[in-house]
Design brief:
Layout lengths: L3 H5 L3 H9 L4 H7 L4 H8 L9 H11 L8
Helix pairs in contact: 3-4
Length: 71
């Protein structure tokens, strides 16, 4: 079951994981070669924007976690 927090923030696990890994969203965006504001738009799904499959795979490698954990 989806919690209210997860419903409002689909990438809640991803945000938590970034923090637990001691990284910032800006640093992850830099690793993805993505502007920080674009990363923020995607992680918050602003206007329906979302990560591409390639970006999701790269996130998995950067964070050293299975993609299923945060998508």
């Amino acid at each position: 079951m989806v919690t209210p927090t997860e419903f409002k923030s689909p990438y809640y696990n991803l945000k938590s994981l970034i923090e637990r890994k001691g990284m910032t969203q800006a640093k992850v965006a830099e690793h993805l070669k993505m502007d920080r504001t674009t990363f923020n738009v995607k992680i918050n799904r602003t206007n329906g924007r979302d990560f591409s499959f390639e970006e999701a795979i790269n996130l998995s490698h950067i964070l050293n976690e299975k993609i299923e954990y945060f998508f």
